[in-house]
Amino acid sequence: MTSINSITTIIFDLGGVLIDWNPRHLYQKIFKTEEEITWFLENVCTPEWNEQQDAGRSFEDATKELVQKFPEHEHAIRAWYDRWQETIHGPIHETVEILRSIRDSRRYRLYALTNWSAETFPWALENFEFLHWFDGIVVSGIEKTRKPFPEFYEILLNRYNIVPENSIFIDDNLQNVEAARAIKIDAIHFQGAGNLKAELRRRDLI
After folding, report:
1. Beta strands in the chain (DSSP E)
2. Quick count: other Cβ atoms within 10 Å of Cβ 75?
3. CA-CA to 148 of 20 to 30 Å: which in 17, 51, 54, 69?
4. pLDDT of amino acid 4
5. CB atoms within 10 A of CB 113
6. Alpha-carbon distance 193 to 12, whole Å?
7. Alpha-carbon span 50 to 41, nearest angstrom
8. What φ, ψ does residue 21 adopt, rounded to 5°?
């Protein structure tokens, strides 16, 4: 673990950490059972398919690809982007309060590193005031690469002159956490606000 006295920078993931994003929020309104939702998200609008939009592919191209492959699911496929705002259930308030306390302490530089489509991120900026608390945000859809690829982390480090060994990264995806650790960034696997607060206190950061 990085020396607690050396930390200057705290880096947050957004979806799943500060913002409650989950496609189930939308598809619970479309399908009748959780089993149907699970099948659809594992076989049609899969995480791997969505990751390509996070890396810069357009909604139009992504939707066209799946409609051609699964025409019987056209309505549900088109809903992913026609109604994408319904996949967001608002802020995760407990984590936002942790972010607020870090900001108010003025002890650390604050950044966000997010896998998010360039087409929808402007909406997030307009609707979540706390996104403007960061000193900078790097968005995968704009950069055309994403977590867990090392080059995506390097964009943040290089753009804002961040020293990896002096940083903490927070993400709900263990693969992304391990990728950060591989380039010498201390990282916390987010498993709820209570756990995050405990990990930050253990490091004497709050």
Report:
1. 9-12, 19-21, 88-91, 109-114, 136-139, 167-171, 186-189
2. 10
3. 69
4. 52
5. 26
6. 13
7. 10
8. -105, 130
Query: Nearest 5°: phi and psi at 126?
Result: -75, -25
Per residue in 74-128, pLDDT (tens digit) is 999 999 999 999 999 999 999 999 999 999 999 999 999 999 999 999 999 999 9
Give the span between the Cα atoms of 16 and 191, in whole angstroms: 9
Tell me: the pLDDT tens digits for 161-206?
999 999 999 999 999 999 999 999 999 999 999 999 999 999 999 9
DSSP-derived 3-state class of residue 31? coil
* Residues 30/86, Cβ–Cβ less than 8 Å: no
Q: Tell me the residue type at 132.
A: H
Give start and end residues of each alpha helix (H) in 72-173: 74-82, 93-105, 121-127, 140-143, 150-159
Contact predicate 9/166, CB 8 Å: yes
Q: Are 1 and 203 in contact (CB under 8 A)?
A: yes
- Local structure of 91: helix, strand or coil: strand
> Which structure tokens are listed for 177?
């956490």
Query: What is residue 3's predicted lDDT score, i.e. its pLDDT?
Result: 44
Separation of alpha carbons 188 and 168, rounded Å: 7
Cβ-based neighbours of 145, under 8 Å, separated by 6 or more: 55, 56, 151, 152, 155
